[in-house]
Amino acid sequence: MSSAPSSAVGSAASTAATGAARRLDIEPLPASFGALVRGVRLAVLEAQDWHALRAAWLEYALLIFPDQHLDRAEQIAFARRFGRLEFTFAAISNLAPDGSVRTDAARDDVLRLLEGNLEWHADSSYLPVMATGAVFSARVVPRSGGQTEWADMRAGYEALDADQRARIAGLSAWHSIACSQARIGHVVGPDSDMIGYGFDAGTRALRPLVKVHPETGRRSLLIGRHAHAIPGLAEAESSRLLDELTRIACRPPRVYSHAWAAGDVAVWDNRCLLHRARPWDPSEARVMWHTRIAGDPASEAASA
Predict the structure, then answer these.
(1) Residue 24 sits in which domain range?
(2) How confident is the model over 201-215, as pLDDT tens digits?
(3) Does some domain include residue 47?
(4) Are 262 and 142 in contact (CB under 8 A)?
(5) CB-count burial class (<10 Å; 0-12, 13-18, 19+) for 179
């Protein structure tokens, strides 16, 4: 694991997470973050286990629970324990409404968005208030591929040398999903169902490159595919800097890749991790359930 949080809150979370390990089976992942959790049923979570799991979540930033098989209501109820929800439920899926596999990769907005999600990103960083985290569960998985990878932006920041930290101190970047999708040739039309969730004309958010976690006090990088156009830098220089930070941060031991089995559930802290999907055979179905935890405007609001 990477170094412990510096704040009193972070220290308390670490202590509680250690206590949780004595009651539950919490196994750190082979990375600078994350843990596999067994010995608990999320659908019938007792109060003492909930408090222990929340402390472990702050410590590890990513918790994975195998073999849970939550239904829709159970997943939403579990996510609500973390706070208000940005949205209660979305199927991240390559299936059409009739159950067939979507095939028109060039014209289908859903498939183009899934393509964009193959790049590192933080959820909702392009909205006025960024998400706190997400609960994600696997319903249908392909025979191979389709993993989700996460990257630890706390350890990513700590991997920078003094000169690199000094260079980015005080810098911010604009975040826009319309811009990030346009880079892969996807422009959403005015009649798309996606209008209204970041694709509206002019929707973007300015966020610092270095974020201080509101509960642990740890610094982390806030980058990813939605970040672009650092004010004060030329476009080419901005792109080079963001690409350099991503190359440094998103490499072992700061990356974990999870091969899903149906029934797995993950909850992660969007305030200090990036994530991305990995490719799979487009003729095979992949259906994931996503519930997003709303951000606190006091800490997750964009500066502009």
Answers:
(1) 8-300
(2) 778 999 999 999 999
(3) yes
(4) no
(5) middle
DSSP-H helix ranges across 7-108: 8-23, 47-60, 72-80
Q: Read off the CATH number of the domain in which 65 is found.
A: 3.60.130.10
User: How many C-beta atoms lie closer than 10 Å to residue 12's C-beta?
Assistant: 16
Q: What is the residue whose two structure tokens read 């270095």?
A: 210
Q: What is the pTM of this model?
A: 0.91
User: Is 276 a domain residue?
Assistant: yes
User: With bands split at pLDDT 50, 70 and 90, how would you rate the model's confidence at 71?
Assistant: very high
Kindly list the distances between the CA atom of residue 176 and the CA atoms of 1, 86, 200, in Å, as whole numbers in the listed order.
32, 18, 10
Q: How many domains does the chain have?
A: 1
Task: Give the CB-side neighbour count of residue 184, counting CA atoms within 13 A.
Answer: 21
Rounded (10°) angle between helices 47-60 and 8-23: 120
Instruction: Record the tokens describing residue 6, joined without a space.
Output: 């510096």
Handedness of CA 57, 295, 240, 164 (dihedral sign): negative
Neighbours of 16 (CB within 10 A): 18
Is 81 contained in some domain? Answer: yes
Collapsed DSSP state (helix, strand, coil) of residue 299 = helix
> Do 218 and 197 meet the contact criterion of CB atoms below 8 Å apart?
no
Using 50, 70 and 90 to split pLDDT, how confident is the model at 98? very high
Output the pLDDT for position 193.
Answer: 73
- Sign of the C-alpha dihedral, residues 46, 49, 50, 51? positive
**Pair of tokens at residue 61:** 């930033």
- Kindly state the average pLDDT of the residues 155-170: 98
